[in-house]
């Protein structure tokens, strides 16, 4: 059974940093693309970043480019999202997700990130 478990969310002041972790288990993820999405109150879930587990190639939403860094640790089967220079508009529930082909098939339960001004 695939499990994605996020951690690392919390309350931080604007300009601060947080690092989210996503521990993946239940299968071999070497062929998967891992992603982070977020959903703010009253808004749709939006893409934040993704990384190919095999190649390490990354992609980011324009709103976080230059501030967030996605990475993975193959030995720990964990994906990270380093979030720097946080803004109040980054406040959302952040979800870890995984896809093999076209669609994201697996989702974590989410972790709350709140950035105060």
Notes on the structure:
With about 120 residues, the protein is an all-beta fold. The protein contains no helices and eleven strands. Strands 2, 4, 5, 6, 9, 10 and 11 form a seven-stranded mixed sheet that branches. Strand 7 and strand 8 form a beta hairpin. The chain is globular, with a radius of gyration of 13 Å. The N and C termini lie far apart (about 40 Å). The model has no long low-confidence stretch (mean pLDDT about 95).
Poorly predicted spans? none
SSE order, one letter for each helix or strand: EEEEEEEEEEE
| Total helical segments | 0
Major sheet details: 7 strands, mixed
Share of residues in helices = under 10%
Q: In angstroms, what is the radius of gyration?
A: 13 Å
SSE class:
mainly beta
Give the amount of beta strand, in percent: over 45%
Distance between the termini: 40 Å
Overall mean pLDDT: 96
Tell me the overall shape.
globular
Number of strands: 11
